[in-house]
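Possible regression after last week's pipeline update?

I re-ran a chain I had predicted before the update to compare outputs. Posting the input and the new output here so someone can diff against the archived version. Not blocking, just want to make sure nothing changed silently.
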Amino acid sequence: MTLLQKALQEKQQQTETQRRQNVLKVLEESRNRRRLNPADFGLPDSTEMIREDRDR
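New output (post-update):
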């Protein structure tokens, strides 16, 4: 393996590692995000919306 190929391979591996870390960070932020209750904003919840659609 040439020196250039090895360097490119290492760079690619670092990039993949960074992508994985970014995905894990986004997932963690999503899990920690506060959940909102639609009723607090005067909005129907998903069950009510499904019932409305079914009744049409």
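Follow-up from reviewer: compared with the archived run. The mean pLDDT is 87. Marking as no regression found.
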